[in-house]
Protein backbone atom coordinates (compact mmCIF):
# COMPACT_ATOMS: atom_id res chain seq x y z
CA UNK A 1 0.00 0.00 0.00
CA UNK A 2 1.26 3.46 -0.91
CA UNK A 3 0.06 6.95 0.07
CA UNK A 4 0.60 9.64 -2.55
CA UNK A 5 1.24 12.69 -0.41
CA UNK A 6 3.00 16.08 -0.33
CA UNK A 7 4.55 17.87 2.67
CA UNK A 8 2.44 21.04 2.37
CA UNK A 9 -0.81 19.32 1.31
CA UNK A 10 -3.03 19.69 4.39
CA UNK A 11 -5.28 16.83 3.30
CA UNK A 12 -2.22 14.58 2.96
CA UNK A 13 -1.00 15.75 6.38
CA UNK A 14 -4.26 14.61 7.92
CA UNK A 15 -3.79 11.03 6.67
CA UNK A 16 -0.07 11.03 7.60
CA UNK A 17 -0.91 12.05 11.17
CA UNK A 18 -3.45 9.22 11.30
CA UNK A 19 -0.83 6.73 10.00
CA UNK A 20 1.68 7.90 12.65
CA UNK A 21 -0.91 7.77 15.44
CA UNK A 22 -2.00 4.25 14.45
CA UNK A 23 1.63 3.11 14.27
CA UNK A 24 1.18 1.79 10.70
CA UNK A 25 4.61 1.03 9.20
CA UNK A 26 3.80 -0.78 5.94
CA UNK A 27 2.42 2.16 3.93
CA UNK A 28 5.00 3.90 1.72
CA UNK A 29 4.54 7.69 1.61
CA UNK A 30 5.70 9.52 -1.53
CA UNK A 31 4.88 12.27 -4.05
CA UNK A 32 2.78 10.86 -6.94
CA UNK A 33 4.50 10.50 -10.33
CA UNK A 34 3.45 13.29 -12.71
CA UNK A 35 1.96 15.48 -9.97
CA UNK A 36 4.02 18.55 -10.88
CA UNK A 37 3.51 18.13 -14.64
CA UNK A 38 -0.26 17.71 -14.47
CA UNK A 39 -0.03 14.10 -15.74
CA UNK A 40 -1.45 12.85 -12.43
CA UNK A 41 -5.05 13.69 -13.42
CA UNK A 42 -4.91 10.86 -15.97
CA UNK A 43 -4.34 8.51 -13.04
CA UNK A 44 -6.76 10.11 -10.56
CA UNK A 45 -9.66 12.16 -12.00
CA UNK A 46 -9.86 14.60 -9.06
CA UNK A 47 -6.10 15.31 -9.51
CA UNK A 48 -5.66 15.95 -5.80
CA UNK A 49 -3.55 14.35 -3.12
CA UNK A 50 -3.66 12.30 -0.98
CA UNK A 51 -4.49 9.17 -2.94
CA UNK A 52 -4.17 5.68 -1.46
CA UNK A 53 -2.73 3.23 -3.99
CA UNK A 54 -3.77 -0.40 -3.40
CA UNK A 55 -1.45 -1.79 -6.08
CA UNK A 56 -2.94 0.22 -8.96
CA UNK A 57 -6.45 0.50 -7.45
CA UNK A 58 -6.72 4.12 -6.23
CA UNK A 59 -8.79 5.62 -3.41
CA UNK A 60 -8.95 9.47 -3.51
CA UNK A 61 -10.18 11.99 -0.90
CA UNK A 62 -8.58 12.21 2.55
CA UNK A 63 -11.81 11.61 4.46
CA UNK A 64 -12.53 8.43 2.46
CA UNK A 65 -8.94 7.21 2.89
CA UNK A 66 -9.01 7.88 6.64
CA UNK A 67 -12.24 5.92 7.11
CA UNK A 68 -10.84 3.08 4.97
CA UNK A 69 -7.67 2.92 7.09
CA UNK A 70 -9.82 2.80 10.25
CA UNK A 71 -11.55 -0.27 8.82
CA UNK A 72 -8.51 -2.19 7.59
CA UNK A 73 -6.17 -1.22 10.46
CA UNK A 74 -8.44 -1.52 13.51
CA UNK A 75 -5.52 -1.20 15.97
CA UNK A 76 -5.29 2.17 17.80
CA UNK A 77 -8.85 3.15 16.89
CA UNK A 78 -9.19 6.88 16.11
CA UNK A 79 -12.99 6.69 15.80
CA UNK A 80 -15.37 6.22 18.74
CA UNK A 81 -16.08 3.32 21.06
CA UNK A 82 -19.81 3.84 20.34
CA UNK A 83 -21.79 5.13 17.35
CA UNK A 84 -22.55 8.35 19.27
CA UNK A 85 -18.85 8.93 20.09
CA UNK A 86 -17.95 8.32 16.44
CA UNK A 87 -20.56 10.92 15.43
CA UNK A 88 -18.92 13.46 17.78
CA UNK A 89 -15.49 12.76 16.28
CA UNK A 90 -16.82 12.99 12.72
CA UNK A 91 -18.67 16.25 13.49
CA UNK A 92 -15.47 18.00 14.58
CA UNK A 93 -13.42 16.39 11.80
CA UNK A 94 -16.02 17.64 9.33
CA UNK A 95 -16.02 21.19 10.71
CA UNK A 96 -12.23 21.17 10.26
CA UNK A 97 -12.47 19.59 6.81
CA UNK A 98 -15.35 21.53 5.20
CA UNK A 99 -15.59 24.85 7.03
CA UNK A 100 -11.88 25.37 7.76
CA UNK A 101 -9.64 23.41 5.34
CA UNK A 102 -11.76 23.52 2.20
CA UNK A 103 -12.40 27.27 2.41
CA UNK A 104 -8.74 28.01 3.30
CA UNK A 105 -7.64 25.89 0.34
CA UNK A 106 -9.94 27.75 -2.09
CA UNK A 107 -9.09 31.24 -0.79
CA UNK A 108 -5.36 30.74 -1.46
CA UNK A 109 -6.05 31.44 -5.14
CA UNK A 110 -6.53 35.07 -3.99
CA UNK A 111 -3.03 35.50 -2.50
CA UNK A 112 -1.82 37.88 -5.22
CA UNK A 113 -3.07 41.33 -4.14
CA UNK A 114 -3.04 42.81 -7.67
CA UNK A 115 -5.64 40.33 -8.99
CA UNK A 116 -7.50 39.66 -5.73
CA UNK A 117 -11.31 39.42 -5.71
CA UNK A 118 -12.24 40.80 -2.28
CA UNK A 119 -15.73 39.27 -2.48
CA UNK A 120 -14.20 35.78 -2.70
CA UNK A 121 -11.88 36.53 0.24
CA UNK A 122 -14.77 37.84 2.36
CA UNK A 123 -17.03 34.89 1.54
CA UNK A 124 -14.46 32.16 2.19
CA UNK A 125 -12.67 33.64 5.22
CA UNK A 126 -16.13 34.44 6.62
CA UNK A 127 -16.89 30.71 6.41
CA UNK A 128 -13.59 29.94 8.16
CA UNK A 129 -14.44 32.31 11.03
CA UNK A 130 -17.96 30.85 11.23
CA UNK A 131 -16.41 27.37 11.40
CA UNK A 132 -14.03 28.40 14.21
CA UNK A 133 -16.98 29.75 16.21
CA UNK A 134 -18.86 26.45 15.84
CA UNK A 135 -15.66 24.59 16.75
CA UNK A 136 -15.38 26.70 19.93
CA UNK A 137 -18.63 25.06 21.03
CA UNK A 138 -17.46 21.48 20.43
CA UNK A 139 -13.72 21.56 21.25
CA UNK A 140 -12.37 19.69 24.28
CA UNK A 141 -10.52 21.43 27.10
CA UNK A 142 -8.10 18.62 27.95
CA UNK A 143 -5.68 18.97 25.03
CA UNK A 144 -7.63 16.76 22.62
CA UNK A 145 -10.36 17.74 20.16
CA UNK A 146 -12.99 15.42 21.68
CA UNK A 147 -13.36 12.21 23.72
CA UNK A 148 -10.24 12.91 25.86
CA UNK A 149 -7.87 11.07 23.52
CA UNK A 150 -6.30 11.40 20.08
CA UNK A 151 -8.91 10.84 17.35
CA UNK A 152 -9.47 11.52 13.65
CA UNK A 153 -10.79 14.95 14.69
CA UNK A 154 -7.26 15.91 15.82
CA UNK A 155 -5.78 14.60 12.56
CA UNK A 156 -8.00 16.98 10.55
CA UNK A 157 -7.73 19.91 12.95
CA UNK A 158 -3.91 20.04 13.08
CA UNK A 159 -3.37 20.83 9.36
CA UNK A 160 -6.48 23.06 9.32
CA UNK A 161 -5.28 25.25 12.20
CA UNK A 162 -1.70 25.23 10.80
CA UNK A 163 -3.04 26.59 7.51
CA UNK A 164 -5.16 29.30 9.16
CA UNK A 165 -2.36 30.45 11.48
CA UNK A 166 0.37 30.56 8.83
CA UNK A 167 -1.38 31.44 5.61
CA UNK A 168 -4.60 33.46 6.15
CA UNK A 169 -2.58 36.71 6.34
CA UNK A 170 -1.52 36.25 2.69
CA UNK A 171 -5.09 37.25 1.71
CA UNK A 172 -5.01 40.25 4.05
CA UNK A 173 -6.95 38.72 6.95
CA UNK A 174 -5.57 38.56 10.52
CA UNK A 175 -5.26 35.13 12.17
CA UNK A 176 -8.70 34.61 13.79
CA UNK A 177 -7.69 31.73 16.11
CA UNK A 178 -7.00 33.98 19.18
CA UNK A 179 -10.65 35.16 19.00
CA UNK A 180 -11.81 31.64 19.93
CA UNK A 181 -10.03 31.05 23.27
CA UNK A 182 -10.91 27.36 23.70
CA UNK A 183 -9.73 26.59 20.16
CA UNK A 184 -6.55 28.63 20.79
CA UNK A 185 -5.83 26.69 24.00
CA UNK A 186 -6.42 23.39 22.19
CA UNK A 187 -4.12 24.48 19.35
CA UNK A 188 -1.30 25.32 21.80
CA UNK A 189 -1.73 21.97 23.59
CA UNK A 190 -2.07 19.60 20.60
CA UNK A 191 1.20 20.82 19.05
CA UNK A 192 3.01 19.02 21.90
CA UNK A 193 1.47 15.68 20.95
CA UNK A 194 4.21 13.59 19.27
CA UNK A 195 2.15 12.66 16.18
CA UNK A 196 0.92 16.22 15.70
CA UNK A 197 4.49 17.49 16.14
CA UNK A 198 5.86 15.07 13.51
CA UNK A 199 3.16 16.16 11.05
CA UNK A 200 3.80 19.86 11.76
CA UNK A 201 7.54 19.43 11.02
CA UNK A 202 6.56 18.24 7.52
CA UNK A 203 3.99 21.01 7.03
CA UNK A 204 6.52 23.71 8.05
CA UNK A 205 9.16 22.12 5.79
CA UNK A 206 6.68 22.22 2.89
CA UNK A 207 5.80 25.84 3.66
CA UNK A 208 9.49 26.90 3.72
CA UNK A 209 10.05 25.17 0.35
CA UNK A 210 6.99 26.86 -1.16
CA UNK A 211 8.10 30.29 0.09
CA UNK A 212 11.59 29.75 -1.33
CA UNK A 213 10.06 28.84 -4.70
CA UNK A 214 7.82 31.94 -4.67
CA UNK A 215 10.81 34.18 -3.79
CA UNK A 216 12.87 32.64 -6.62
CA UNK A 217 10.07 33.21 -9.14
CA UNK A 218 9.61 36.81 -7.96
CA UNK A 219 13.39 37.46 -8.31
CA UNK A 220 13.33 36.00 -11.83
CA UNK A 221 10.40 38.24 -12.84
CA UNK A 222 12.12 41.29 -11.34
CA UNK A 223 15.34 40.53 -13.27
CA UNK A 224 13.35 40.09 -16.48
CA UNK A 225 11.55 43.43 -15.94
CA UNK A 226 14.89 45.17 -15.22
CA UNK A 227 16.44 43.71 -18.40
CA UNK A 228 13.43 44.85 -20.45
CA UNK A 229 13.70 48.37 -18.93
CA UNK A 230 17.46 48.57 -19.70
CA UNK A 231 16.78 47.54 -23.30
CA UNK A 232 14.09 50.19 -23.80
CA UNK B 1 -35.53 10.17 17.41
CA UNK B 2 -36.35 13.27 15.35
CA UNK B 3 -34.84 14.69 12.16
CA UNK B 4 -34.96 18.47 11.83
CA UNK B 5 -35.38 18.93 8.12
CA UNK B 6 -36.77 21.27 5.44
CA UNK B 7 -38.26 20.36 2.02
CA UNK B 8 -35.82 22.44 -0.04
CA UNK B 9 -32.71 21.76 2.09
CA UNK B 10 -30.63 19.43 -0.12
CA UNK B 11 -28.64 18.14 2.86
CA UNK B 12 -31.92 17.27 4.62
CA UNK B 13 -33.16 15.60 1.42
CA UNK B 14 -30.10 13.35 1.42
CA UNK B 15 -30.91 12.00 4.91
CA UNK B 16 -34.64 11.71 4.12
CA UNK B 17 -33.88 9.60 1.02
CA UNK B 18 -31.68 7.38 3.20
CA UNK B 19 -34.48 7.01 5.78
CA UNK B 20 -36.98 6.07 3.04
CA UNK B 21 -34.56 3.60 1.42
CA UNK B 22 -33.80 1.93 4.75
CA UNK B 23 -37.50 1.72 5.57
CA UNK B 24 -37.03 3.47 8.92
CA UNK B 25 -40.43 4.45 10.32
CA UNK B 26 -39.67 5.63 13.86
CA UNK B 27 -37.88 8.92 13.08
CA UNK B 28 -40.14 11.99 13.10
CA UNK B 29 -39.29 14.49 10.37
CA UNK B 30 -40.07 18.18 11.00
CA UNK B 31 -38.84 21.77 10.66
CA UNK B 32 -36.78 22.77 13.71
CA UNK B 33 -38.34 25.27 16.12
CA UNK B 34 -36.86 28.76 15.67
CA UNK B 35 -35.29 27.98 12.30
CA UNK B 36 -36.98 30.87 10.52
CA UNK B 37 -36.34 33.37 13.33
CA UNK B 38 -32.64 32.55 13.70
CA UNK B 39 -33.19 31.18 17.23
CA UNK B 40 -32.09 27.73 16.05
CA UNK B 41 -28.37 28.64 16.24
CA UNK B 42 -28.70 28.71 20.04
CA UNK B 43 -29.66 25.04 19.85
CA UNK B 44 -27.20 23.96 17.13
CA UNK B 45 -24.03 26.08 16.68
CA UNK B 46 -23.72 25.44 12.92
CA UNK B 47 -27.34 26.66 12.50
CA UNK B 48 -27.91 24.35 9.56
CA UNK B 49 -30.32 21.53 8.88
CA UNK B 50 -30.52 18.56 9.00
CA UNK B 51 -29.94 17.91 12.69
CA UNK B 52 -30.71 14.56 14.31
CA UNK B 53 -32.27 15.00 17.75
CA UNK B 54 -31.66 12.07 20.11
CA UNK B 55 -33.98 13.41 22.82
CA UNK B 56 -32.14 16.72 23.28
CA UNK B 57 -28.70 15.41 22.24
CA UNK B 58 -28.10 16.84 18.74
CA UNK B 59 -26.02 15.48 15.86
CA UNK B 60 -25.46 18.04 13.05
CA UNK B 61 -24.11 17.62 9.50
CA UNK B 62 -25.83 15.33 6.97
CA UNK B 63 -22.76 13.17 6.32
CA UNK B 64 -22.31 12.51 10.06
CA UNK B 65 -26.03 11.78 10.53
CA UNK B 66 -26.06 9.39 7.54
CA UNK B 67 -23.10 7.42 8.85
CA UNK B 68 -24.69 7.31 12.32
CA UNK B 69 -27.95 5.97 10.89
CA UNK B 70 -25.99 3.29 9.00
CA UNK B 71 -24.52 2.15 12.33
CA UNK B 72 -27.69 2.17 14.42
CA UNK B 73 -30.05 0.89 11.69
CA UNK B 74 -27.98 -1.85 10.03
CA UNK B 75 -30.95 -3.16 8.00
CA UNK B 76 -30.89 -2.30 4.26
CA UNK B 77 -27.22 -1.36 4.31
CA UNK B 78 -26.45 1.63 2.05
CA UNK B 79 -22.69 1.34 2.57
CA UNK B 80 -20.50 -1.42 1.11
CA UNK B 81 -20.22 -5.14 1.78
CA UNK B 82 -16.43 -4.67 2.04
CA UNK B 83 -14.19 -1.80 3.14
CA UNK B 84 -13.18 -1.21 -0.50
CA UNK B 85 -16.81 -1.04 -1.64
CA UNK B 86 -17.62 1.38 1.17
CA UNK B 87 -14.68 3.56 0.01
CA UNK B 88 -16.16 3.64 -3.52
CA UNK B 89 -19.57 4.67 -2.17
CA UNK B 90 -18.05 7.34 0.07
CA UNK B 91 -15.90 8.71 -2.79
CA UNK B 92 -18.94 9.37 -4.96
CA UNK B 93 -21.02 10.63 -2.03
CA UNK B 94 -18.18 13.02 -1.19
CA UNK B 95 -17.86 14.31 -4.77
CA UNK B 96 -21.62 15.03 -4.65
CA UNK B 97 -21.36 16.56 -1.17
CA UNK B 98 -18.22 18.73 -1.42
CA UNK B 99 -17.73 19.48 -5.09
CA UNK B 100 -21.39 19.68 -6.16
CA UNK B 101 -23.70 20.46 -3.21
CA UNK B 102 -21.43 22.66 -1.10
CA UNK B 103 -20.42 24.88 -4.02
CA UNK B 104 -24.00 25.10 -5.33
CA UNK B 105 -25.17 26.05 -1.85
CA UNK B 106 -22.57 28.83 -1.52
CA UNK B 107 -23.10 30.25 -5.03
CA UNK B 108 -26.84 30.80 -4.39
CA UNK B 109 -25.88 33.94 -2.45
CA UNK B 110 -25.09 35.41 -5.90
CA UNK B 111 -28.57 34.94 -7.38
CA UNK B 112 -29.41 38.66 -7.42
CA UNK B 113 -27.84 39.98 -10.65
CA UNK B 114 -27.54 43.59 -9.42
CA UNK B 115 -25.16 42.69 -6.58
CA UNK B 116 -23.55 39.59 -8.17
CA UNK B 117 -19.80 39.03 -7.81
CA UNK B 118 -18.89 37.28 -11.05
CA UNK B 119 -15.59 36.04 -9.60
CA UNK B 120 -17.47 34.09 -6.91
CA UNK B 121 -19.84 32.63 -9.53
CA UNK B 122 -16.92 31.59 -11.78
CA UNK B 123 -14.95 30.03 -8.91
CA UNK B 124 -17.83 28.04 -7.42
CA UNK B 125 -19.59 26.94 -10.62
CA UNK B 126 -16.14 26.02 -11.99
CA UNK B 127 -15.78 23.67 -9.02
CA UNK B 128 -19.22 22.21 -9.75
CA UNK B 129 -18.27 21.51 -13.38
CA UNK B 130 -14.93 20.03 -12.26
CA UNK B 131 -16.84 17.79 -9.84
CA UNK B 132 -19.24 16.61 -12.58
CA UNK B 133 -16.25 15.68 -14.77
CA UNK B 134 -14.73 13.60 -11.96
CA UNK B 135 -18.16 12.05 -11.33
CA UNK B 136 -18.35 11.08 -15.02
CA UNK B 137 -15.36 8.81 -14.36
CA UNK B 138 -16.88 7.06 -11.34
CA UNK B 139 -20.62 6.91 -12.12
CA UNK B 140 -22.30 3.55 -12.80
CA UNK B 141 -24.10 2.79 -16.06
CA UNK B 142 -26.85 0.57 -14.63
CA UNK B 143 -29.06 3.23 -13.07
CA UNK B 144 -27.25 3.38 -9.72
CA UNK B 145 -24.33 5.58 -8.72
CA UNK B 146 -22.03 2.65 -7.84
CA UNK B 147 -22.11 -1.03 -6.79
CA UNK B 148 -25.22 -1.83 -8.86
CA UNK B 149 -27.66 -1.04 -6.07
CA UNK B 150 -29.03 1.93 -4.11
CA UNK B 151 -26.36 3.32 -1.75
CA UNK B 152 -25.56 6.48 0.21
CA UNK B 153 -23.92 7.79 -2.98
CA UNK B 154 -27.37 7.96 -4.62
CA UNK B 155 -28.83 9.70 -1.56
CA UNK B 156 -26.27 12.53 -1.91
CA UNK B 157 -26.35 12.68 -5.70
CA UNK B 158 -30.13 13.08 -6.06
CA UNK B 159 -30.40 16.44 -4.22
CA UNK B 160 -27.08 17.60 -5.72
CA UNK B 161 -28.17 17.00 -9.32
CA UNK B 162 -31.66 18.41 -8.54
CA UNK B 163 -30.02 21.63 -7.33
CA UNK B 164 -27.72 21.94 -10.35
CA UNK B 165 -30.48 21.26 -12.87
CA UNK B 166 -33.05 23.60 -11.35
CA UNK B 167 -31.07 26.40 -9.80
CA UNK B 168 -27.67 26.97 -11.50
CA UNK B 169 -29.33 29.17 -14.16
CA UNK B 170 -30.27 31.72 -11.46
CA UNK B 171 -26.57 32.73 -11.38
CA UNK B 172 -26.42 32.95 -15.18
CA UNK B 173 -24.81 29.56 -15.85
CA UNK B 174 -26.38 26.94 -18.15
CA UNK B 175 -27.13 23.49 -16.70
CA UNK B 176 -23.85 21.57 -17.21
CA UNK B 177 -25.27 18.05 -16.65
CA UNK B 178 -25.85 17.30 -20.38
CA UNK B 179 -22.09 17.81 -20.96
CA UNK B 180 -21.37 14.68 -18.90
CA UNK B 181 -23.38 11.99 -20.75
CA UNK B 182 -22.92 9.16 -18.23
CA UNK B 183 -23.99 11.44 -15.37
CA UNK B 184 -26.97 12.64 -17.48
CA UNK B 185 -28.05 9.04 -18.17
CA UNK B 186 -27.72 8.17 -14.47
CA UNK B 187 -29.76 11.27 -13.53
CA UNK B 188 -32.58 10.28 -15.92
CA UNK B 189 -32.60 6.71 -14.57
CA UNK B 190 -32.36 7.36 -10.80
CA UNK B 191 -35.42 9.66 -10.84
CA UNK B 192 -37.54 6.56 -11.48
CA UNK B 193 -36.34 4.92 -8.26
CA UNK B 194 -39.19 5.10 -5.73
CA UNK B 195 -37.09 6.56 -2.88
CA UNK B 196 -35.47 9.13 -5.16
CA UNK B 197 -38.90 10.02 -6.58
CA UNK B 198 -40.39 10.54 -3.09
CA UNK B 199 -37.48 12.82 -2.17
CA UNK B 200 -37.75 14.77 -5.42
CA UNK B 201 -41.47 15.45 -4.80
CA UNK B 202 -40.45 17.19 -1.54
CA UNK B 203 -37.58 19.09 -3.19
CA UNK B 204 -39.84 20.37 -5.98
CA UNK B 205 -42.52 21.32 -3.43
CA UNK B 206 -39.90 23.28 -1.47
CA UNK B 207 -38.68 24.98 -4.65
CA UNK B 208 -42.23 26.02 -5.64
CA UNK B 209 -42.81 27.47 -2.15
CA UNK B 210 -39.51 29.37 -2.29
CA UNK B 211 -40.29 30.81 -5.72
CA UNK B 212 -43.73 31.90 -4.53
CA UNK B 213 -42.13 33.65 -1.54
CA UNK B 214 -39.59 35.42 -3.76
CA UNK B 215 -42.35 36.55 -6.15
CA UNK B 216 -44.42 37.88 -3.21
CA UNK B 217 -41.45 39.83 -1.85
CA UNK B 218 -40.67 41.26 -5.29
CA UNK B 219 -44.31 42.37 -5.71
CA UNK B 220 -44.23 44.02 -2.28
CA UNK B 221 -41.04 45.91 -3.12
CA UNK B 222 -42.48 47.01 -6.46
CA UNK B 223 -45.66 48.29 -4.76
CA UNK B 224 -43.54 50.15 -2.18
CA UNK B 225 -41.43 51.77 -4.90
CA UNK B 226 -44.59 52.77 -6.84
CA UNK B 227 -46.11 54.30 -3.68
CA UNK B 228 -42.88 56.23 -3.00
CA UNK B 229 -42.84 57.49 -6.62
CA UNK B 230 -46.52 58.60 -6.42
CA UNK B 231 -45.79 60.49 -3.21
CA UNK B 232 -42.76 62.32 -4.70
Describe this structure in words.
The structure is a homodimer of 232-residue chains. Chain A contains eight helices and four strands, in the order E-H-E-H-E-E-H-H-H-H-H-H. Chain A is an alpha+beta fold. Chain A has two domains: 2-72, Glutaredoxin (3-Layer(aba) Sandwich); 83-207, Glutathione S-transferase Yfyf (Class Pi), Chain A, domain 2 (Up-down Bundle). Chain A has a four-stranded mixed beta sheet, with helices on one face. In chain A, helix 4 runs parallel beside helix 6 and helix 6 (152-167) runs parallel beside helix 8 (194-231). The first copy, chain A, is globular, with a radius of gyration of 19 Å. The N and C termini of chain A lie far apart (57 Å). In chain A, 43% of the residues are buried. The mean pLDDT of chain A is 95. Chain A binds chain B through residues 45-46, 54, 57, 59-61, 63-65, 67-68, 71-72, 83-84, 86-87, 90-91, 94-95, 98, 102, 106, 109, 117, 119-120, 123, 127, 133-134, 137-138, and chain B through 45-46, 54, 57, 59-61, 63-65, 67-68, 71-72, 83-84, 86-87, 90-91, 94-95, 98, 102, 106, 109, 117, 119-120, 123, 127, 133-134, 137-138.
Q: How does the SSE layout of this entry go?
A:
The structure is a homodimer of 232-residue chains.
Chain A (H helix, E strand, L loop, with lengths): L1 E3 L5 H13 L5 E3 L9 H4 L7 E4 L2 E4 L1 H11 L10 H25 L10 H21 L13 H16 L13 H10 L3 H38 L1
Parallel strand pairs in A: 1-2
Antiparallel strand pairs in A: 1-3, 3-4
Helix pairs in contact in A: 1-3, 1-6, 1-8, 4-5, 4-6, 6-8
InterPro entries (chains A, B): Glutathione-S-Trfase_C-like, Glutathione-S-Trfase_C_sf, Glutathione_S-Trfase, Glutathione_S-Trfase_N, GST_Omega/HSP26, Thioredoxin-like_sf
Organism (chains A, B): Phenylobacterium glaciei
Protein name (chains A, B): Glutathione S-transferase family protein
